[in-house]
């Protein structure tokens, strides 16, 4: 049965955990963002989707589009499993490419535990025809299992097409495999593009991206199982990648399956999947699961990868709750309240003591989530131990390394959207999380420091007048 996403009812708009300015599916399950492209004035984002249940399974490709990166219109489903074929049990993740002017999706088919690479084409980005020769890559190379072979990322370099596939070597080390094609249809395996060299780099690499940025090439991989996203910076010459630097995009696995695309203005934008971190019993009644991050802009700064929310998000700011210069101390917190907010905090340079930002607090603070920058430990930490009184939600704490240079000020951008939290630290560190307070009065916030600290702090409400889809 063909399902049209536009006909599916959106779950209760009054669901307090459902974000208002992050994209969610009309109903059912969402995970990885897939092919992303800008065409004729609109962004098109495809994504992993179960249209009938808010749980993983029966994976299709959902589709949404936007003229402004802020408001999204649900489009018809792009891909659905075809029984008895290579994708009979799921159309898994992949990417988009213009091949000789034809919109083309590359994706992983799943059938009876076997992963193969498939292809579909379109004339209008709405209806897609699967290649009669699917699977176009039926087998992995030596030392890669048939179920460790997925998520093709396709790009053109010079006159040739290249595909990078996520894999595991000997089911022990994450790897990105490189293929080459002259026409985007027949593919030749070349070699391992890059592989894990340490145990903390993971057993399996999923959702690889490989793209130029400035004078460098960037390889982004999602480290399975849910160990976050890593990037490697280096050179790509003679079809060989030499990694020179590495880092973490999202610490502690809060976001996953990052996917990158170039906009008409040359900006390099990226989306990621933010999963549910609560028990199935709490998810199913709501009828939806999974969120995409806000669009993020990537840049190369001082030879390293920087990640920030796109500037368009400021258009969603509504009421200014507080703003201006502040003296932050331990006894008189700067207070605010709200569940859909955009916060910016800039502190004086060379602070030596922790600063705390509390969110979604109840009046008695029995529920409270605390974001702390500890300059001595060089950590940005998110304490979720009291984020909810409900034991069925994930309350593990998260952290990411953040070492400020001498004379550098801390600059935090915090996006709170119902249950979604994204934290950006000067472009150099990112934490993504989910928060599910059980009390309806857990809406308060406070800013404190262990010693008096000067800074600027602004808080806006967000998305109250987002308007209809465009």
Automatic annotation (TrEMBL):
Residues 22-309 form the Glycosyl hydrolase family 32 N-terminal domain. PROSITE patterns: GLYCOSYL_HYDROL_F32 (PS00609). Gene3D superfamilies: Exo-inulinase, domain 1 (2.60.120.560), Glycosyl hydrolase domain, family 43 (2.115.10.20). Residues 332-460 form the Glycosyl hydrolase family 32 C-terminal domain. It is an enzyme of class 3 (hydrolase). GO terms for biological process: carbohydrate metabolic process. It holds the Pfam family Glyco_hydro_32C. It comes from the Bacteria. InterPro entries: ConA-like_dom_sf, GH32_Enzymes, Glyco_hydro_32, Glyco_hydro_32_AS, Glyco_hydro_32_C, Glyco_hydro_32_N, Glyco_hydro_beta-prop_sf. One of its GO terms (molecular function) is beta-fructofuranosidase activity. Its EC number is 3.2.1.26. The keyword Hydrolase applies. Keywords: Glycosidase, Hydrolase. CDD domains: GH32_FFase (cd08996). Belongs to the glycosyl hydrolase 32 family. This is beta-fructofuranosidase.
